[in-house]
Design brief:
141 residues, alpha/beta, 36% helix
Length: 141
């Protein structure tokens, strides 16, 4: 299953960008990173179907890493070919975008800078795939 991160803003050469690159290289699942401008319409190819859309949103559901991994594994096993992870700009997502998403995902109740959220998402995707593979990276407490 393709893990497709679509994010507002350019991460460029930054500590967050280095983290995103580090986890992208470690991922054994296919991963694609698409950056949109902070405002206006972004362009992206039609999704590989069937697909799911996950919006990172502070009003979303906080999930334990094991539960997130189980969800991705279930979608993969159901034949989902692409999961799109949408990271908004400073103003977040519209009500229409929230309503059409398959999942609103939060990294806790705090609001995170979108560049840091991108790095955190990449780490959680790496962690989820290692959990599904039985790799020792994830050490549950």
């Amino acid at each position: 299953m393709l893990l497709h991160i679509i994010a507002r803003g350019k991460i460029g050469r930054s500590p967050e960008g280095e983290l995103v690159d580090r986890y992208a290289k470690r991922l054994t699942w296919p991963v694609k990173l698409t950056e949109w401008p902070d405002t206006g319409a972004g362009k992206v190819a039609d999704p590989v179907t069937p697909y799911r859309t996950v919006l990172l949103d502070e009003r979303g559901r906080a999930m334990a890493s094991e539960d997130f991994a189980a969800l991705l594994g279930r979608w993969r096993d159901e034949g989902v070919r692409e999961t799109r992870f949408m990271i908004g700009a400073a103003d977040g997502h519209s009500d229409a975008e929230r309503a059409s998403a398959d999942l609103l995902l939060a990294f806790g109740p705090a609001t995170w800078p979108h560049m840091l959220a991108r790095a955190m998402l990449m780490e959680q995707l790496y962690r989820a795939t290692t959990i599904l593979a039985g790799h020792p990276y994830h050490r549950a407490g």
